[in-house]
Amino acid sequence: MGLLFRYQVLCTWASAGHLIRYLGEKIKGMKTLSCDVAVIGAGPAGLAAACAAREHGARRVLVIERNTEPGGILQQCIHNGFGLRIFDSDLTGPEYATRWIERAQALDVELLLDTMVLSIEGACRVIATNGRQGLLEIEARSIVACMGCRERPRGALAIPGTRPAGVYTAGTAQRLVNMEGYMPGERFVILGSGDIGMIMARRLTLEGAQVVAMLEVLPYVSGLRRNLVQCVRDFDIPLYLCTTVIEVRGRKRVEAVLISKVDEHWRPVPGTERELRCDTLLLSVGLIPENELSRMAGVMLDPLTGGPLVDERLETNVPGLYAAGNVLHVYDLVDDVTESALRAGRQAAESALGRPQAPPTAPNAWLPVRPGENVRHVVPQRLHIRFAEAELQFRARTPIEGLTQAEIRVDGEVVASRRLRYARPSEMVTWRLDPTLQKRLAEGKEVSVHLIALEEGERRG
């Protein structure tokens, strides 16, 4: 109990940043480690970033992970569909993680497990703690933030009603079923149609539970279309769009939820309420990049993504501090997470070794990148006018289920365009930029990205 209390005190003070700075200056005998690149998080992004850093010359790469084993969330994702692009194989989550763990071991990447990072001080100092070595100061030449993301809980939704047992996030239920061997209920209602929620609808059905309904407040599902087909429709799970939970009922345990249709402003429509009997409510209502450590380091965050503002090298406003994976913005495929981490790891190694990476960051050396028509957000949020290589990643604000034109504009003028079969919020669009755009960028003040539904005549043309 004493250890737990001290840990809670450390975490509370660390979040404010006071204790860590004090300890870093005052405690004698604090162990110090040094490395070229420090990677925070040993999920798919962290492992890939570490491997890339080693492969591009970093001599000592240290991965810091709070769990007792590497692999991150992949260890509980026992379904397949991972690695189709990276490994050209259809793997389960643990299989995908194992490939990166073995690759990291072969490259002599150092894993510091069961270790909690308490703060990032700029881009060269990390304060961490574990039960073996106590308080650690890690001095790095560059850092890659790969902390991943967390699920949005019930408290963020302000659902009225009692507070009984039986309300879980979909990811928590996934861990209970797949890793702990525990079924959290028998009759489930799932709020939200995110990918984890749809995958759990199938998983629970296979385990003999009844999924009474899946509810989505939007007029379309928020997860991938393949999961809609394979996990919901193939298992005849009722799906209600434009519908939400307006009350949780039950005392000691969930007994029912009251649901209602919603209007275009997500407000309940009177007269459409009905009760669904269930003993468990799962929430699959979005993911939030885990950026408390980034804030402490002085990293500027994008209110649209919840992740850091970065350039095309995935470097934040703190020089030498990079971000990759779901801490940057929430991806839908682990292959995309991995590719962003490979790029960030390579750039972190280049920075640690003092190799030239980009032109000077004078005020006119880069342009802001903005989301335009029907685009929710764009990463990176700034672009060097003399980029060596760059790609833009963005999501549609609302679905376009037909031929779509994506456009890159500089100061409102279209400088590049491409056709898409459709554009959906659940499927990120990646666009590799042609270096020939540099001349036009050098003349501009702002880059914007747009998604436009083509009319029938334009489609034929």
Would you kindly provide a written description of the structure presented here, covering whatever features stand out?
The protein is of the alpha/beta class and 461 residues long. The chain folds into three domains: 2-150 and 288-352, FAD/NAD(P)-binding domain; 153-285, 3-Layer(bba) Sandwich (FAD/NAD(P)-binding domain), CATH 3.50.50; 366-460, Immunoglobulin-like (Sandwich), CATH 2.60.40. The protein has eleven helices and 25 strands. The protein has helices at residues 2-16, 18-26, 44-55, 93-106, 170-178, 195-206, 225-232, 292-296, 334-352, 438-442, 456-460, and strands at 31-40, 61-64, 110-112, 116-121, 125-130, 134-145, 149-151, 167-169, 187-191, 210-216, 239-241, 243-249, 256-261, 274-277, 280-283, 287-289, 321-323, 366-371, 375-379, 382-384, 391-396, 404-410, 413-420, 429-432, 447-453. Strands 1, 2, 3, 4, 5, 6 and 17 form a seven-stranded mixed beta sheet that branches. The chain has a five-stranded parallel beta sheet with strand order 8-15-9-10-11. Strands 20-18-25-22-23 form a five-stranded mixed beta sheet. Strand 9, helix 6 (195-206) and strand 10 (210-216) form a beta-alpha-beta unit. Helix 3 runs parallel beside helix 4 (93-106) and helix 3 packs parallel to helix 9. The longest helix has 19 residues, at 334-352.
Terminal-residue CA separation: 71 Å
Look at the helices and sheets and give the structural class: alpha/beta
Proportion of residues in helical segments: 10-25%
CATH fold title of the largest domain: FAD/NAD(P)-binding domain
The CATH superfamily of the largest domain is: FAD/NAD(P)-binding domain
Report the top-level CATH class of the largest domain: Alpha Beta
Radius of gyration: 23 Å
* Gross morphology: globular
- β-strand percent reads 25-35%
